[in-house]
Amino acid sequence: MRNLKNKIVTMALLVFMLSFSIMPACAENTAPEITASSAIVYCGDTGEVIMEKNADEKMEPASMTKLMTCLLAAENLDLDQVIEVPAEVTSIPPTKAYLRAGEKITVEELMYAALLSSANDAAAVLAIAAGGSVENFAVMMNEKAASLGCTDTNFTNPSGLSDENQYSTARDMAIIAREALGNETVRKISGTAEHTIPETNAYKARELHNFNMFLYGGEHNLEGETLAVEKYEGVFGGKTGSLSKEYCTMVTGLDCDGLEIYTVVMGTTMKTRFADMKALMDYGQANISKYAAFEKGADFGKAKLTGGATNKVKAIAAEAGYVNLPEGASASLVTTKCIYADSLFAPIEKGQKVGVVEIYIADDLYRTVDLVAAEPVEKGWFLSDFGITNMQTIIIGLVLFAIIVFILTILILRMKNKRKRAQRRREKLMEEARRRLEREEDLKRRNWPY
Q1: Architecture of domain 32-288 in CATH?
Q2: SS3 string of 60-127?
């Protein structure tokens, strides 16, 4: 009986210990509970969704919109371009940079105001400068969103002010954030904790502080309560947004050991926004495993082309082939397949897409990465349309020239030999005639009758 009791106690202890050893692993794979109505954790390098909650629900993006605004400004305007503030933007509701009509300020400073202080007037100035009007700029925003693959997004203004026709989804905003923060200028500005706009012709110097407290950490007074946010290592940018204290949004870009994770929340409160984001970023870091099937710039052979100075172009990976391997999976399960474009015609620009490389895990297609030209290829000479390179054309020309020279040499030698033979025949006939003449003269001298 005592042995039986000991066995039961031992088994109970084992079960108890195992339960504690298993709990952390289970907790790591359990999605966190958040107050946000919609959310997503998206790996920008692999295109993988690590976690999502109502990620395709259409909601107002609020000031996350300014990421798209500043992306288009960076692509269409010079940073040092000085813009005169139009009077129409000075009446836009807060948040403001308190721009004055006729004030002269650079594009770069306007972008700092829009991304750090979420200044709606600064966003409007950028829109008018880049698009001619807010309405035209909204068309540009929607065209850009569509080109990125966003299917549930529509913009009507550059600031994120509430409008029933302005909407997006957590999924689309993650895609937009990836593109915007992939722009060097937007990434730098949105990742700046504080900035001073120098004094202008109409206003004193402005001190700006980024609303994204993950960049620096600190405390914020909220309705008499202290909201404490710790600095989050690896956060390199993002944008907050709010239409009220009860409706807030936010997106962050997080560097996770070389992989970039984009986290979006929509429909959360000002009190819970940072807690939601932290929980999601923690979950993203805990549930991603970096493995590179190949590095950016990896050589994938040469793609054939027509009409070029050469008939092949070196293909390299446009980005690293990162893979998030499932737990316990071996890297040996990862394979790649290179597919060149069916028809490539010169000229080819450096960086131009020339194919894709497919990445498989256990024979299942995981993702594709673009292959781009490692160097430019110019339009070839007249034989290039037949797949003959300039060098081959030169070689063919040299060979043909050598053949022609050889044939001409043979012909010339033959003509010379023919002339020599004719000359010898003439000389032989002349010699024979001379001898015959001598014999005839000799006979005459002897007066022989026969």
Answers
A1: 3-Layer(aba) Sandwich (3.40)
A2: CCHHHHHHHHHHHHHHHCCCCCEEECCHHHHHCCCCCCCCCCCCEEEHHHHHHHHHHCCCHHHHHHHH
* Residues sharing a CB contact under 8 Å with residue 65, sequence separation 6 or more, in sequence order: 123, 155, 157, 158, 159, 160, 166, 241
Do 32-288 and 292-386 show the same overall fold?
Answer: no
Sole residue written with tokens 């430019």: 376
Predicted local distance difference test score (pLDDT) of residue 16:
39
- Going from N- to C-terminal start, the domains of the chain cover 32-288, 292-386, 389-450
Between CA 36 and CA 136 the distance in angstroms is 32
Q: Residue 366: which region, alpha, beta or left (left: phi > 0; alpha: psi -120 to 50)?
A: alpha
pLDDT digits (tens, 9 = 90+) for 70-80: 999 999 999 99
Please tell me whether residue 51 adopts helix, strand or coil conformation. strand
Q: Residue 337 forms beta bridges with which residues?
A: 358
- In tens, the pLDDT along 285-295 reads 998 877 888 99
Prediction pTM value = 0.71
* Beta carbons of 234 and 255 less than 8 angstroms apart: yes
| Model confidence at 15: pLDDT above 80 | no
Token readout for 268 is: 């959360």
148 burial (CB, 10 Å; 0-12 / 13-18 / 19+) is: middle
Token code pair at residue 246: 């009860």
Q: How many CB atoms lie within 10 A of CB 272?
A: 16
Report the C-alpha gap between 64 and 35 in whole angstroms: 19
Q: Could you tell me which residue, 88 or 445, shows the higher pLDDT?
A: 88
Sign of the alpha-carbon dihedral angle for 236, 181, 166, 110:
positive
For the chain, the helix, strand and coil percentages under 3-state DSSP, each to the nearest 5 = 40, 25, 35
The CATH superfamily assigned to 292-386 is: D-Ala-D-Ala carboxypeptidase, C-terminal domain (2.60.410.10)
* Separation between Cα atoms, residue 248 and residue 269, nearest integer Å: 5
65-84 burial code (b ≥16 CB/10 A, e <16): bbbbbbbbbbeebeeeeebe
> What's at 272, amino acid-wise?
T
Within 10 Å of residue 300's Cβ, how many Cβ atoms? 22
